[in-house]
Write a structure and sequence with these properties.
The protein is mainly alpha-helical. The chain is about 65% helix and about 0% strand. The chain has helices at about 5-35, 50-70, 80-140, 160-165, 170-175, 185-195, 200-205, 215-230, 250-255, 260-275, 295-310, 315-325, 335-350, 355-370, 375-390; strands at about 235-240, 240-245. The longest helix is centred in the N-terminal third of the chain and has 59 residues, at about 80-140. One of its GO terms (biological process) is DNA-templated transcription termination.
Length: about 400
């Protein structure tokens, strides 16, 4: 299940990408000016390189000034040709900005919605593991004298996995979202043969005389926690040496999901809750988890943070600058600047979220995503900003427990 902190992280990442992209858009606009004054090699008249160079420099300076003031200053040295070049560069820059804004907003929504497909894929992975064990059980041994112990293949008959295999809602969801491990069968085999099959906890489960429903649940809970969603680094001691290893499935998911560090916790929680909700004798009561209890509300929340942070950037930066003491706005880290702007937007436009909650949440994000000193810096600045906005009546909270905008 999505939580608001994860949504804030997603918006922060989208905004950070957007703010970074502006540098590229600015460079593209400058290149347009340089290309505008390139000599025409098809002209019969020899190019005046000095004039072209001078016009390029004048246009670049005019564009820089126009970028800051949004006005193309007229002057003796700014010819009509230079004005045309600058106007085209400004138009190109603004078009690219708007394109990037839409692009990162679309990716933001797609990325959040994509979490549901990853949730389904993990449930499908558990089913694939059981199928692999069943295939191993049914395969005839190469050595005729080898005796197979049927009990060793318990995972193939795990009651919870069998329930998932037979659940129509899950199977339809897997088909609808085109979820399959067919192209990653080697991953499934490696997970089972190199990791799970040699795990003492799995071996203990495998060697039980008979597995109860609780045993079946416990082994899946263990597999999910320790093998599918392991910690980033596995550390152990071997022959007196400390050994560190990137877990196999962590590496697999990280290579396919750039935001795996943030997504991992939410997905693990969703999968574990789903397994816990399985009651074999009451199949009608089982429901796949929704990505959100109220997706319309959550979508509105992230779009408000994203759109308003961009639309009101100038005003928000003025607010931040007004509260900086002994510090210059242009020296702030982009991450801190982004988080501070988002916090101001949330305080002003999310009436049901208490101010204290907003401040605490963005202080935590600064702790995890910015510099070591950012947490204290962001905390102090937001306290001061919140007090000013409340005094000016710009923060209006509504709802139970939000008296006095607290």
């Amino acid at each position: 299940m999505l939580n608001r902190r994860l949504l804030r992280v997603k918006v922060m990442q989208a905004l950070y990408a957007y703010f970074q992209s502006r540098s590229s858009d600015y460079y593209v606009a400058e290149e347009h000016i340089r290309n505008y004054f390139q000599p025409d090699l098809n002209s019969m008249t020899p190019p005046d390189y000095e004039t072209l160079k001078r016009n390029t420099q004048i246009a670049l300076r005019a564009f820089e000034q126009a970028h800051k003031t949004r006005v193309i200053e007229a002057g003796n040295e700014i010819s009509e040709e230079v004005q045309v070049a600058v106007q085209q560069a400004i138009r190109l820059y603004e078009q690219n900005l708007e394109r990037d804004k839409r692009h990162f907003r679309r990716l933001l929504i797609e990325e959040v919605e994509g979490l549901y497909e990853r949730y389904l894929s993990v449930l499908a992975l558990l089913i694939e593991l059981a199928k692999l064990v069943a295939a191993e059980r049914d395969r005839k041994p190469l050595d005729p004298t080898q005796v197979k112990v049927a009990a060793h293949y318990k995972l193939a008959d795990n009651q919870i996995i069998r329930f998932l295999q037979n659940n129509q809602d899950l199977q339809e969801a897997l088909k609808r979202h085109y979820i399959s491990w067919q192209e990653d069968q080697e991953v499934v085999k490696t997970l089972y043969r190199d990791y799970l099959r040699n795990d003492p906890t799995y071996i203990a489960y495998r060697e039980l005389p008979q597995a109860s429903f609780e045993d079946d649940y416990n082994i899946l809970d263990y597999i999910v926690r320790q093998h599918i969603f392991p910690r980033a680094t596995h550390v152990w001691e071997e022959e007196g040496q400390v050994v560190e290893e990137e877990p196999f499935m962590y590496t697999f998911f990280e290579e396919r999901d750039l935001k795996w560090v943030e997504n991992r916790s939410a997905l693990r929680s969703m999968v574990l809750k789903t397994l816990k909700s399985v009651v074999p004798d009451r199949p009608d009561e089982f429901r796949l988890l929704d990505l959100s209890l109220n997706w319309e509300e959550d979508e509105n929340f992230i779009l408000t943070l994203y759109n308003k942070t961009i639309e009101e950037e100038e005003e928000n930066l003025r607010i931040i600058d007004r509260h900086l003491k002994g510090w210059e706005l242009n020296r702030l880290l982009l991450v801190d600047k982004t988080l501070l702007q988002m916090a101001i937007v949330e305080m002003k436009y999310c009436p049901q979220i208490p101010v204290k909650v907003t401040i605490n949440e963005f202080v935590e994000l600064a702790k995890h995503y910015s510099s070591p000193k950012s947490r204290k810096f962001v905390n102090g600045l937001l306290d001061s900003i919140a007090a000013t906005l409340q005094a000016e009546g710009q923060i209006r909270k509504s709802g139970r427990g939000l008296i006095d905008n607290q």
